[in-house]
Design the sequence.
């Protein structure tokens, strides 16, 4: 659907190791992204370097570095409820065979904990799924800015339709 362009992984590594925290900069208003949702505790936005259409990041507003250790159980579960809601909205908006949810980063770069939600489109050959689908070495999608804005808007609307709790459907 969208062409890919090469990703400069060396420049990226230098930026995340030596530059300011990209999420703290986003929260401060200095690093614009296509925002999907924000509240007092978290932000949800489209990644600037998507390898899959609809690739979203979810992060706490406060700089936290450990996926579990820097949160109380209640704070962690609150974030996971948000991640669930974003995931369900993504599945409504983007054709998805499998939704990958993971936290990446390192104490050496991208220290601010964040979760990646990456929708794998239907029909991708098995050999190109899972971690292969997430590799920047294959290039990143050249998605026009207006398409990113429209996608962010559609995901936001789907989240609003789901409501704040987004409880899974009852099996009764």
Sequence:
């Amino acid at each position: 659907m969208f062409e890919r362009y090469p990703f400069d992984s060396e420049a990226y590594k230098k930026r995340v190791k030596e530059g300011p925290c990209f999420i703290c900069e986003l929260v401060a208003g200095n690093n614009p992204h296509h925002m999907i949702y924000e509240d007092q505790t978290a932000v949800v936005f489209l990644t600037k370097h998507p390898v899959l259409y609809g690739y979203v990041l979810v992060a706490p507003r406060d700089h936290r570095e450990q996926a579990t250790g820097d949160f109380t159980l209640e704070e962690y579960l609150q974030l996971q409820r948000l991640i669930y809601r974003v995931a369900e909205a993504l599945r409504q908006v983007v054709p998805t065979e499998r939704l990958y949810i993971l936290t990446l980063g390192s104490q050496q770069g991208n220290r601010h904990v964040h979760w990646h939600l990456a929708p794998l489109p239907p029909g991708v050959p098995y050999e190109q799924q899972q971690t292969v689908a997430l590799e920047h070495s294959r290039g990143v999608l050249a998605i026009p800015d207006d398409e990113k804005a429209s996608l962010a808007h559609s995901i936001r609307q789907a989240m609003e339709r789901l409501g704040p709790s987004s409880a899974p459907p009852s099996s009764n």
